[in-house]
Amino acid sequence: MLRARTLAAVTAAAASGVLLLPSPAQAAGSVHLYKIYYDSPGSDRGANTSLNAEYVQIRNTTGAAVNLRGWTVRDAANHKYTFGNFTLGKGKIVTVRTGRGTNSSTNVYQNRGWYVWNNDKDTATLRKANGTWVDSCSYNSTRVDYKWC
Ligand SMILES: [Ca+2]
Ligand SMILES: [Ca+2]
To answer: How confident is the model over 94-109, as pLDDT tens digits?
Structure first.
């Protein structure tokens, strides 16, 4: 159970559009799936801007930068994205967008021509380059367009 003061803080954060829920994993510090925006706003007709409004985010709450080279993100149908040489700084979030674009320090692109995250249900799985499981995040709802992992 959340204590009243914590709940009030969470409620205030939610009202401001920023939701940061404490969890054991984050308290310990980890690299983990943070959010999946799986139903791109508007009609899903495959435009690159629409594809790029579909994304999964990965967050690093450890005390050090982590190089994600070779790490993979897969959906339930085994569509795979493999990170190139990408350093995720401590406390930072990287957004993995579905469409085409130029990678930066905050955004990387799967360069796909169609959506990868199903609008009804799917599972994202994050693994290290050697295949070690890191995190999974599942959703099963069309009532909202995104999932906080
Ligand atoms: Ca849509
Ligand atoms: Ca999928």
So the answer is: 999 999 999 999 999 9
